[in-house]
Amino acid sequence: MGQFQLGLNTSTIRPADLMDKIRIAGETGYTAIELWNDDLTAYEEQGGSLSDVKKALDDYGLSVPTIIALHGWLNTTGTEHQEAIEEAKRRMAQAAAVGSTYIISSPPREVADLQLGGENYRELLELGREFGVKPAMEFLGFVDGINQVKQAWEVMEVADHPDSTIVLDPFHIYRGGGEIEDMEGIPGEKIAVFHFNDAPAEPARAEQTDADRVYPGDGILDLGRMISILKDAGYAGVISLELFNPNYWEQDPTEVARIGLEKTKSVLSAA
What distance separates the 2 farthest-apart alpha carbons in the chain? Predict the structure, then answer.
């Protein structure tokens, strides 16, 4: 739609099985889909092949901007860190097998050493080059450490690597106590993906969890302002609907995907 591709993060319809998620995204009219490593692993463990997943994606004309996610890499050293790197290799291989451009690299829950985090992020980025996948730095509004744009950006600055990118997400900007203006000045090419969602007025900001996310336009966030900033930045990537709302999970997944796409288009049209 315009300069953006519209994507479905499969967390939005989590109860559906992997192949149904792909079919639903394609049939509903999305052009991109974000998949989760855990879903890919479960599919393989049940005897499925990632080549079949890639074929399904191709059949429905779906690009894969990101796979989610890498954990345990940022704030670790020694044996614990090495174990995280070995798991990262497995997950990067999955991402490469389904044609993903990026793999989201999540921060820890605890307060993190940003210098160490930057050094470890650089290591991840170098590793990603071996797989043809770029690790994208994520901040999470509900963690104690890297919960705003500025900390994630500091990790990127320490890493000082040409492949570094950031994941932006309205809910996490709000939940972490950040400002929309934190997005300003980020070049479009440094944004891996823009997750799309909204936040309700209740419960209070500091009490909200991923489960409280609502459809774009159904909450209180100034999504139009965020889209304007993305346009000004020259971002031309994926706007990806990412919800974790258990009320939506109880509904027909095709209907949830359809409503989400309609509401996304409505917000973008008004921006």
Answer: 51
